[in-house]
Amino acid sequence: MQIVKSAFIFCKNVGLVVNYINPTMHMTKHTLWGCILCGIYVLLAFLVHNRILVSIDLETTTLLQQIIPRSADLPSSVLSLLGSVEITILVLAALLLLARPTVRVRLVLLFALVALLELQGKTMIVQPPVPDALQRYVFAYGTPTGSISTEFSFPSGHSARTSFLVATAIALVAQSNTSPTRQRVLTALLLVAAAVMLVSRVYIGDHWLTDVIGGALIGVGLALFALPGEFIRPALPKHPISR
User: Fold this and answer.
1) Which of 41, 147, 188, 229 has the most Cβ atoms closer than 10 angstroms to its Cβ?
2) Does residue 242 lie in a domain region?
3) Collapsed DSSP state (helix, strand, coil) of residue 178
4) Distance between terminal CA atoms of the chain?
5) What contacts 115, CB < 8 A, 6 or more positions away?
6) What are the φ and ψ backbone dihedral angles of 228, each rounded to 5 degrees?
7) How far is CA 221 from CA 64, 108, 163, 239, in A?
8) Contact between 164 and 140 (Cβ < 8 Å)
9) Per the domain annotation, does 233 fall within a domain?
């Protein structure tokens, strides 16, 4: 019953924000995929809540910690700091400068919704956090928001925020005036950066695999609702227009 209530609240929150952003929004390729990814997230949350994927989570964490050397503990811990709320808000602010003014409100509201859905999941979906014996975070400190603890761990906030920002950055690159080759290179680098962040969450014992996948689903899914229409701010002319 609790997971049904959680799914209802999730869908209601997404619907309210999307309707506020654009009451006349028509179904496009981006919004369709956003709905699909959010639907998959609800299904995954059901499986997680009913403890169906526990063995996969444990085996994945154990395998990664066996094949990745302990020298990765430090860079993974640094990534944990870079994916914090404080740092990702700064990254979002930089992306807002490149986006069209009409898109900025969408991005801010959807980014806030990512945080809201993360909090909802971590209070309603039963997913015990990774045991201390499997955690490899090396710093004795973290960011202020990192000290906030919740009872459960699904979904991963780092994964959600990173996926949202990377999807947004890829959209900006795709609509930029740079060459197709440079666009492909930048997109590949962004995807690699996202993949490294997501894998590090599991390796370092900060989250289970299902936490990371759940975070990626809502991060990309909600970012897609901001994409319909022109996204990037038009570049200023290099030379003044003569009259």
Assistant:
1) 41
2) no
3) coil
4) 68
5) 85, 157, 161
6) -55, 140
7) 27, 15, 9, 39
8) no
9) no
Biggest alpha carbon–alpha carbon distance for the chain: 71
Instruction: Name the domain count of the chain.
Output: 1
Domain carrying residue 84? 2-224
Name the CA radius of gyration of the chain, rounded: 19
Tell me the residue type at 65. Q
132 CB contacts (<8 Å, ≥6 apart)? none
Residue 177 domain flag: yes
The two tokens of residue 29 are 């390729």
**What DSSP string describes 120-146?**
HHHHHS--PPPPGGG-----S---TGG
Amino acid at 138: V
- Site of tokens 């609790």: 2
Express the helix, strand and coil content of the chain in percent, nearest 5 each.
Answer: 70, 0, 30
The per-residue pLDDT string of the chain (243 residues; one tens digit each, 9 = 90 and over) reads: 555 555 555 555 565 555 555 554 555 677 888 888 988 999 999 999 999 999 999 999 999 999 999 999 999 999 999 999 999 999 999 999 988 887 888 899 999 999 999 999 999 999 999 999 999 999 877 788 877 788 899 999 999 999 999 999 999 998 888 889 999 999 999 999 999 999 999 999 999 999 999 999 999 999 988 875 555 455 444 444 444
pTM above 0.90, yes or no: no
43 located within any domain: yes
Closest CA to 116 of 204, 13, 220, 226: 13
